[in-house]
Amino acid sequence: MPEKNSVSWSAMISGYVKCGDLDMAMELFELAPVKSVVAWTAMVTGYMKFGKIESAEKLFREMPTKNLVTWNTMISGYVENCQAEEGLKLFRSMIGYGVRPNPSSLCSVLLGCSNLSALQMGKQVHQLIYKFQLYNDTTAATSLVSMYCKCGNLGDAWKLFIEMAQKDVVTWNAMIAGYAQHGAGLKALDLFDRMWNEGAKPDWITFVAVLMACNHAGLVDLGVQYFNSMARDYGVAAKPDHYTCMVDLLGRAGRLVEAANLIKEMPFEPHSAIFGTLLGACRIHKNLELAEFAAKKLLDLDPTSAAGYVQLANVYAATNRWDHVAKVRRSMKKNRVVKTPGYSWIEVKSVVHEFRSGDRAHPELASIHEKLFELDRKMKLAGYVPDLNFALHDVGEEQKQQLLLWHSEKLAIAFGLIKVPLGTPIRIFKNLRVCGDCHHATKYISAIEKREIIVRDTTRFHHFKGGVCSCGDYW
Question: What are the beta bridge partners of residue 453?
C-alpha cells in the first residue's frame, strides 16, 4: 500500500510540474508521506525548467537516492540554462561515481561541448560512446557529428557521418548545417540532393540549413529557387526562420529593397529577429534610410533589444554621424538597455581562456601585448592597413588603431600563437560577429605565422590559411 501511495503522489507532483504549477507541485512534495526518487526528480525537473537553478541544486544535494534520470535532468538543465560548464562538471562526477550513461546523458553533454566549443571534452565523450558500446545509437552518433561540426572539426564529423549505419533526418540536417556553417555551400547542397535521392524526407530544419548554405556561399539566385520550391516540390511550408534566412541572403548580397519587400509579403507578422537581420545588412552596405526603418520596427517589437540600438549606432558610426551615435547611446541609457559585451575564447590543454576587448585581467597579458605589437609591425610591413571604420568611437586615429589591436579575437589569436604547438590549428570562438578589421588582420597573421587559424562567430566558421579565408571575404 505505501508503494502505491508513493506512486500516486509522484504522479500528481509530476502532473503539476508539467502544467507549470511549480508552487502546487512543491506543496504536494512537502506533504508527501513517502518521497520516491521519481518525486524528487520531478521537482528537480520543474526547477530547472523554470530557471530556478539554485533550488534544483539544493534538492539534488539532499536527495537520499539518485537514479540515471536524476543525473540526466541536472546535466541537461544546466546546459539548457546556459551553464554548460556546470553540466560538464556534473557529468564527470556522474562517471566518477560509476553511473553508466545512456544516449540521453551523452546527447546533453555533447550539446554542452558544442555550446562551449570544448573539443577535447567532446573527444573524451566520443571515447565513452565506444567504451559503453553506444556507437550504434543514431541519436548519440548524430550528437557527435553535430559536436564536431560546431567545434570546427569538419573532417571528423564527415568520417563519423559516412560510417553511421542508420541515419535519420536529424543526422542529415546536422551534416548539411555543418557544411553550411563552414561555408562549404556546394558540399551542403550536394548532400541535400543525396539525402533526397536516398529517400530521406527533408523537414523545415533541413531547408534552414540549405538556405544558410546558399547564404554563406553567396549563392543568392539558387537560394531563391530553393525557397520557392520548398512547398511546391517538397511539401514543406515556409516558417519565419526561412524568411529570416532569405532576408539575410538578399541583404548580404546588397539586395536590400528585395529583402524589405519580402518582409512585407510574409504571411504572418514579422518577428524582431527578421528586422535585426535586415538592420545588420544595412550596416554592411551603409544604407542609413533603411537602417533607421529596420531599427524602428525592431525596437517597436522589442524595446529592450540591445542589438537594435547597437547596430543602428554602428551604421551611424560608419557614416561618421557621431552626434547620432551619442543620441542612440543616451537612449540606451535612458531605457536601461545593456549591450552584450563581445568576448572571444580559446581552449588550451582543456582550459578555456576568455578575452574581452581591451582585456586587463588575463595573467599573461604582458606577453600577449608583446606578441600583438610584433604582429602589428610585421603586418604593416606586409601591407596591412587598419580599417578604422571598425573602431566605433569618436577618438583620434592613433587611439583607434590601439583599440582595434586589442579587440578580443586578436588577443585570443596572439595567446594561441604563444601556446598552441606548431602544426596544430588555432581555434578561436566569439560570441558576436567577427569584426571586419580582425578578419582582414587574421588573413595577414595566418600568412606571416604560417598557421591555420579557425574562427567561429555567431554566423559561421572562418578558416584562415596562407593569407586567405574560406569565406572568400563574403560573410
Answer: 426, 464
Read off the pLDDT of residues 283-303 as tens digits, 9 standing for 90 and up. Answer: 888 888 898 899 889 888 888
Best mean pLDDT range from 7-11, 99-103, 470-474: 99-103
**What cell was used for 88?**
560538464
Q: pLDDT tens for residues 10-39? A: 788 888 788 778 788 888 888 877 788 988
Tell me how long the chain is. Answer: 475
DSSP single-letter state for residue 349: T
**Half-sphere CA count of 74, side-chain side, radius 13 A:** 26
What pLDDT does 1 receive?
A: 34
Give the dihedral of Cα atoms 391, 345, 446, 422; nearest 10 deg.
Answer: 150
**CA triplet 401, 406, 407: central angle to 5 degrees?**
100
Would you say 244 and 277 are in contact if contact means Cβ atoms under 8 Å apart?
yes
The counts of H helices and E strands in the chain are 24, 6
Contacts of 130 (CB under 8 A, 6+ apart): none
Calculate the average pLDDT of the chain.
90
**Residues 118, 123, 128: CA angle, nearest 5 degrees:** 125
Cα 411 to Cα 423: distance, rounded to the nearest angstrom: 20
Longest dimension (CA), the chain: 84
DSSP single-letter state for residue 64: S
- What does the pLDDT average to over 260-276? 92
Q: Residue 360, CB half-sphere, CA atoms under 13 Å: how many?
A: 0
pLDDT of 16: 77
Residues of the chain with CATH 1.25.40.10: 239-340
Reported in sequence order, the residue ranges of 2-159 that DSSP labels E, i.e. its strands, are: none
Contact 240, 228 (CB under 8 A): no
Q: Which CATH number is 239-340 given?
A: 1.25.40.10
Sheet holding 461-465, edge to edge: 351-356, 343-348, 426-430, 453-456, 461-465, 468-469
DSSP state of 424: S
Query: CB burial class (10 A; 0-12, 13-18, 19+) of residue 451?
Result: buried
Burial of 133 (0-12, 13-18, 19+ CB in 10 A): exposed
Give the pairing type, strands 426-430 and 453-456. Answer: parallel
Q: Which residue has the cell 605589437?
A: 373
Q: What is the DSSP letter of 270?
A: P
What's the per-residue H, E or C state across 333-358? HHCCCCCCCCEEEEEECCEEEEEECC
